[in-house]
Specification:
46% of the residues lie in helices and 16% in strands. It contains 17 helices and 17 strands.
């Protein structure tokens, strides 16, 4: 079954056809690193990761690029005002200069990469910084100047949207922020929707254009083309970037190269809290640090994201996240108990590999192929995990299914599998389990309880049934299994 996705460019579901079958090319708008990203931002990066994981799971080679904006942009998409990176310098109490800006941005970028890792978002193949690609941005601006699609004022070099008959290809055009900027700070601006390609600033970079900074929009156009070519397959980002930033990206790229730029555009909806968009500006945001304070694994957030379609607004609540955390714990416990059972019986999961028939793989993947409908796929996956198979390979069957789909869902089932085996095969653990099972067989429940406490001190929990006991890590990868 082919992959069908909603293409924001054409406002309809379309069958995805790559430019080159040998490699799928994707660009994703990354963060402006003036502060730690909140979990609403992470939902946008989760969309990019979901797409990449699907392609790689189905055997495709992928080249993924995500930018780092480390020289800022203005709130509300205006061209002038307080740059977000200036806020970072003020917050850190640093002298406002270019060197400090880049140094502080590097620290925030490092934190961003740690947050991606915590959520098990695959690291992009290329993570370019805007500050490292000034040359490419200047070259694109010079192309637009040569084609007379720009003009110069005392403040900036502007893109003239009236010269682009296709401007606003993604729709949703707005003058929010631009109108105020035009009225108050830039009387020479010809059209409200014209945007800065280069802003003159004595603190900025020396260049043949004059000393200054590139406009926010030019960086993505220039860097995506540098690493993916003048035409590439897919561009993703948050829905908030669609009206201005992405429309401006398209305008710059298409006018400078006379090519089509990105063939498919995908936009992820907001993560709301109390029916409002989660945003730093609204002061209603949470970061992964807030999850850590509540002893909730970031992977519980991944489970929450999997259960909502990327084009649907997701309302965040701690109760919903707690439910996702419990679901994750149950899945990990299933794997861990199965491993103990296999070790005890000296059997192998290979013996039941045949149980994961192709039709189940196809069935689970069908959701992804339906415009990345992860709730549909994850629900089907959970149904199979909850099903009783026709033959008596209950937990092993479930584990095979989980290990098979680990690379698609990104919930670290394989890591749970390998780490649990290490826990359960440690010499001290094996000896304690043997002694406890013997004590229970002899109905020496006092000794059994004492050994249970010793095992717990070694991070091994137990679950006693009428005829047998199961042993598994009490906590693994930051998730409690008890």
């Amino acid at each position: 079954m082919p992959l069908n996705i909603y293409n924001s460019l054409h406002k309809q579901i379309e069958e995805f056809t790559p430019i080159n079958d040998r490699e799928i090319t994707m660009y994703h708008c990354g963060p402006t690193v003036y502060d730690r990203v909140h979990i609403g931002n992470l939902r946008s990066f989760f969309l990019a990761d979901t797409l990449r994981r699907y392609f790689e799971f189905t055997g495709h080679k992928v080249k993924q690029v995500m930018n780092i904006t480390d020289i800022g942009h203005i709130s509300g998409d205006a061209d002038f005002g307080e740059d977000k990176m200036m806020r970072l310098l003020k917050r850190k109490g640093l002298e406002i200069n270019l060197k400090n800006m880049l140094s502080a941005a590097a620290e925030e970028t490092e934190q961003f990469e740690k947050d991606l890792e915590a959520l098990n978002i695959l690291h992009p193949h290329v993570l370019p910084k805007a500050s490292d690609h000034i040359k490419e941005q200047i070259a694109m601006i010079q192309q637009l100047i040569a084609k007379e699609i720009s003009y110069v004022t005392k403040h900036a070099i502007y893109f003239d949207v009236s010269k682009d008959p296709h401007y606003g290809a993604l729709g949703g055009l707005t003058t929010s922020g631009q109108e105020e900027n035009s009225r108050i700070e830039e009387s020479e601006k010809r059209n409200i929707q014209d945007f800065a390609l280069w802003k003159f600033d004595e603190m900025g970079f020396d260049s043949e254009l004059g000393k200054g900074f590139p406009g926010w929009h030019i960086e993505c156009s220039a860097m995506s083309i540098k690493y993916l070519g003048e035409e590439f397959d897919i561009h993703t980002g948050g829905i908030d970037l669609k009206p201005i930033h992405h429309n401006n990206e398209i305008a710059q790229a298409c006018c400078s190269t006379d090519k089509n730029f990105a063939h498919y555009w995908m936009h992820g909806e907001f993560l709301n809290i109390d029916s409002e968009k989660m945003a730093k500006s609204l002061g209603n945001m949470f970061t992964l640090a807030d999850l850590e304070e509540k002893n909730i694994s970031p992977l519980a957030l991944r489970v929450l994201f999997l259960q909502a379609h990327y084009r649907s607004v997701l309302n965040f609540s701690w109760d919903a996240l707690e439910a996702s955390s419990n679901l994750l714990s149950g899945l990990y416990k299933t794997i861990a108990k199965c491993i103990y059972d296999d070790l005890r019986q000296k059997s192998s999961l290979d013996a039941v590999q045949i149980l994961v028939e192709d039709y189940k793989t196809s069935d689970i993947l069908s959701g992804y192929q339906n415009d990345l409908n992860t709730p549909q796929s994850f629900s089907q996956f959970m149904r199979y995990i909850g099903e009783e198979p026709a033959i008596n390979y209950d937990s092993r069957y479930k584990t095979i299914l989980m290990l098979k789909f680990d690379d698609l869902f990104g919930l670290k089932f394989k890591e749970v599998d390998s780490t649990t085996k290490k826990f359960l095969t440690q010499e001290k653990t094996v000896a304690l389990i043997y002694e406890r099972n013997k004590a229970r067989l002899n109905k020496d429940y006092q000794k059994s309880d004492e050994l249970r406490d010793e095992l717990l001190a070694e991070n091994i929990a137990c679950e006693d049934g009428k005829d047998e006991s199961f042993y598994f890590p009490a906590k693994i990868l930051g998730v409690s299994l008890q």
